[in-house]
Design goal:
Layout (H helix, E strand, L loop, with lengths): L3 H7 L4 E9 L2 E13 L6 E5 L7 E6 L6
Antiparallel strand pairs: 1-2, 1-4, 2-3
Amino acid sequence: MSDSKNETESKGPSHIAYQVRDREGKKGIWTRIGSVWPHSDGKGFNVQIESVPLDGRITLRVATEKKD
């Protein structure tokens, strides 16, 4: 029997969590704050946050091979 949590996490995250702070008249500032893995049944996600933003919003984006 396999441990689905370890299998899922070893595949890498499906999404990356960012804090986004908007700036008036300029592009927003995106800071990576965590990672997201889907549940094996496809009905939810595990979110691992490394810091909690005090302002702005949290945005989840699909993880890509591209360097952040």
